[in-house]
Design goal:
The chain has 10 helices and 8 strands. It is of the alpha+beta class and 435 residues long. A 4-stranded antiparallel sheet has the order 2-5-7-8, with no helix packed on it. The protein has a two-stranded parallel sheet with strand order 1-6. Strand 3 and strand 4 form a beta hairpin. Helix 1 packs parallel to helix 6, helix 4 packs antiparallel against helix 5 and helix 5 runs antiparallel to helix 10.
């Protein structure tokens, strides 16, 4: 009887845990996804990558702007010495000792084989790649937190099932004790009944512990206070849309972020090849400068006066070494592009396989739910019959406990199968890039 007294106390303790740990908060799937997008640490890193890539575009655009420089020099001039060509005589010439120079220079690249344009394009493609990477990570994170959320839903269902079976077990023990007091059953039946109740209470405690672990994982992923007790929306099972045809999801998958990322990588390597080719082109630049310097050392004697001059013109430069260096860079870029093309094809095939598997699993979840629903009804009927037989002493306790375990197992499987349909549907959306 001590075990029976312990059971209700244990259940009461478990039920009071939520009030000890914090306030309950009911969250829908839509709200779950929004909180994950706003607060998940992984997505915060992806957002930072987008900001970095976007700033990279602005930096690349700097190449379109002219370069300006201004300089100020101050220096000490030592006296000069005039020496014969045979180094036999030396004459010292006094020099103004203070010298200074003011200069302003500007230059503008006019043409370099599309180097600047392709440099900006490469950074723009990198920004688009980071945005696609964020979308891909977002879908992964959504499915991850949804998995936690639905597992939490399963545990709450399991908790309800265990509590109902604990009540039935307590009723059975009451009947067994009556039979025992009347001498109709042995002490062995009482022990077996109390042992089953003890196991059910222990299983309920394990379910509650697992619920707390999942709750912590969810609050961390969603950026909620640790004390928040998340409660799934019970209307979730009523609002799951039906899946479309398989060909529809294959069409959706063509715009999967991962597929678009691989195609974007091909564009990036094509641009890299153009940049490497630009090294073989001459560069045409415009320049202008203005300089004010003293003393004037080109006259004799040296004049302690300022010399002012300016210049402007065009500059044409060609790196001859690019003729034998650039082709190697171009060849490397072509190899990288070929690899990116192969990866794009592989990714499309893998996603098509994943979509097919997810579609099959979704239909499998529907079939399992129908089958497990039938099994649950049969197990309920079997338990009702065995309970009636035992109460009329037409069956032994082991048969009743076996029927009770079958009933518990069928109820747990059926409760989980309904949630599995939800997960299978959202997994199908994720694999097709639509989550």
């Amino acid at each position: 009887m001590k075990i029976r007294k312990l059971g209700p106390m244990l259940i009461a303790g478990i039920l009071s845990i939520s009030t000890m740990y914090g306030q309950e908060r009911k969250i829908s799937v839509d709200e779950l996804f929004e909180l994950a997008k706003e607060n998940h640490p992984n997505l915060a890193v992806s957002k930072a990558d987008i900001d970095i890539a976007r700033q990279g575009v602005e930096v690349a655009k700097n190449a379109q702007l002219p370069s300006f420089s201004a300089g100020l020099q101050a220096y000490y001039l030592g006296d000069a010495h005039i020496i014969d060509k045979d180094f036999s005589n030396s004459t010292r010439v006094d020099m103004p000792h203070f010298g200074n120079t003011f200069s302003v220079e500007a230059s503008q690249l006019i043409w370099k084989g599309g180097l600047v344009k392709n440099g900006i394009k490469a950074q723009t493609l990198q920004e688009e790649l980071m945005e696609l990477n964020y979308q891909s990570n977002e879908q992964n994170i959504k499915l991850l937190v949804l998995g936690y959320y639905l597992d939490l839903y399963k545990l709450l269902n399991q908790k309800d099932v265990y509590q109902q079976n604990i009540q039935l077990a307590e009723q059975r023990i009451d009947n067994i004790n009556k039979f025992f007091n009347e001498g109709m059953v042995t002490r062995n039946d009482v022990i077996r009944g109390e042992l089953q109740l003890s196991n059910l209470n222990l299983a309920l405690q394990v379910v509650e512990n697992n619920r707390q672990i999942l709750n912590k994982q969810l609050t961390t992923a969603l950026g909620l206070p640790e004390s928040t007790q998340i409660v799934p929306d019970e209307t979730l099972l009523n609002d799951v849309p039906k899946a479309l045809l398989m060909d529809d999801y294959r069409t959706f998958a063509q715009n999967h972020p991962t597929v678009l990322m691989t195609k974007k990588a091909v564009d990036i390597y094509e641009t890299s090849e153009k940049i490497a080719r630009a090294d073989m082109m001459p560069s045409l630049s415009a320049f202008a400068g203005n300089q004010l310097a003293r003393p004037i050392t080109t006259s004799s004697p040296v004049l302690d006066m300022y010399n002012h001059g300016w210049s402007a013109g065009l500059s044409l430069n060609f790196n001859i070494d690019a003729l034998y260096k650039a082709p190697k860079k171009m060849k490397q870029a072509r190899f990288e592009k070929d690899k990116a093309v192969a990866q794009a094809i592989e990714t499309e095939q893998m996603i098509d396989v994943a979509v097919n598997a997810a579609y099959v699993k979704y239909n499998e979840a529907l079939t399992q739910n129908n089958t497990l629903g039938t099994n649950k009804n049969l197990a309920d009927e079997n338990y009702r019959i065995m309970n009636s037989k035992y109460n009329n002493q037409l069956a032994i306790l082991l048969d009743l406990i076996d029927a009770s375990n079958q009933k518990l197992d069928a109820e747990l499987q059926f409760a989980n199968s309904e949630i599995s349909i939800v997960y299978a549907y959202y997994k199908l959306l994720k694999e097709s890039g639509n989550l």
